Amino acid sequence: MERVKAKGLSVGKVYSRRLFFLLLVGLIHLFLLWSGDILLNYALAGFFLLFFRNSSKEKIKRWAIGLFSSVIFLTAFFSWLSSLVENVLDEDFTKEFAMLVDDAVVVFQNGNYSEILSFRLAEEIPLILPNFIITIPMVLFIFLLGLYVGKKGVLLNIAGHLPWIRKVWGNSLIYGGIMTLVFVILKMEIIIVPFYLHDAVVEVLSLFSGLVVSFFYISSITLLCQQDLWKKRLSFLAPVGQMALTNYLLQTVICLLLFYGYGLGLYGKVTPEVGLLITFVIFATQIFFSKFWMERFNYGPLERVWRMFTYKGIK
Length: 315
Fold this sequence. Notes:
Elements: H1 2-6, H2 11-33, H3 39-49, H4 57-88, H5 91-110, H6 113-128, H7 132-152, H8 162-187, H9 195-224, H10 228-234, H11 238-242, H12 244-259, H13 272-294, H14 301-311
Helix pairs in contact: 2-3, 2-6, 2-14, 3-7, 4-7, 4-9, 5-6, 8-9
């Protein structure tokens, strides 16, 4: 927003065109490639964020707290309802769902693109779309946190906000660690809670702990980058972030070719350990690819198209 203002351009127009491009890419990604898309959530939440661009820090904070509270409530309620339904409904419903899962494994392992797409549109997408009730408010909450930090001036003067960042780092380490530990204890059922509350408590703890631990990651990297040595050590990650959209979608393409039937058909056949190894290999490859690309071009492939779409015809 600040860069757009500095250029004398309309923030609303530029930002809306940027989001519209992301919306189109997200729709294509979600419906034609992979149900785990996040871009559509980003675009839709981003349009709501426009309403807050001139708001005060206090208003942004109140809305962020309210949104996160609603996400926690909805997460707990739907998890509790799901547990209740599973224990109340007859076995036929459970068997039917298990058969759907088995069908999915067979289709994803062996199907061609057309067969997998048909199955996804008929069976998978209808189960995914209702999640927007939770995911869009959650993404908007995170965006509001970013807007709050921006309006606080942290991004323009990190050195002047180091005490605040260190406070975030310490609190997120302590509270994130405690919540993660409790989450693991409940997940492994070392401590038993009533069945109708178990899933709700675990889901809420997962949401809370993941969020707080992310603050720890962000503040840790920020603090490390204030030291010349660590800034140099971490600089290899910069090109990956400069072409984040390209890398994100490239991960989808790579994994579809690895796991779906029109590729190697590894869906459902990979252990967590092997999955972790694949993750490291893919990301390491993208680090080298991104470095190679950014040494030759100013923008990633999709980032260039995104930029052209955003600024074309805008004055």
